[in-house]
């Protein structure tokens, strides 16, 4: 995908976390976000369930947060949210989903 963009465009990274609560995975994400060169990487956060204090910290670091609130896998609402997520990745031209 990178070859199709201009060489001066940043690599778009989407980090997917299950919750916005402070835990090991979420802390690792914030550490990684702060360490990546903002001139080379555009970091985004997708969360599968709302709640917790991580969004405020992400905003302080300039990291956009999208919440999908994906619940039980057998519901029609979950299917719709999964579909939204799947469409958002190419629409936002995400290069890496982690």
Describe the structure.
- The chain has 98 residues and is α/β, with parallel strands linked by helices.
- It is 36% helix and 19% strand.
- It is built from three helices and four strands; from the N terminus they run βαβαβαβ.
- A four-stranded parallel β-sheet has the order 3-2-1-4.
* Largest sheet descriptor: 4 strands, parallel
What is the helix fraction of residues, given as a range?
A: 25-40%
Query: Total strand count, please?
Result: 4
State which percent range the strand residues make up.
Answer: 15-25%
Summarize the SSE layout with pairings.
Layout: E1 11-17, H1 24-35, E2 41-47, H2 54-60, E3 65-67, H3 76-91, E4 96-97
Parallel strand pairs: 1-2, 1-4, 2-3
Describe this structure in a few short sentences.
This protein has helices at 24-35, 54-60, 76-91; strands at residues 11-17, 41-47, 65-67, 96-97. It is of the alpha/beta class and 98 residues long.
Task: Provide tags for this entry.
flat; alpha/beta; 36% helix; 4-stranded parallel sheet
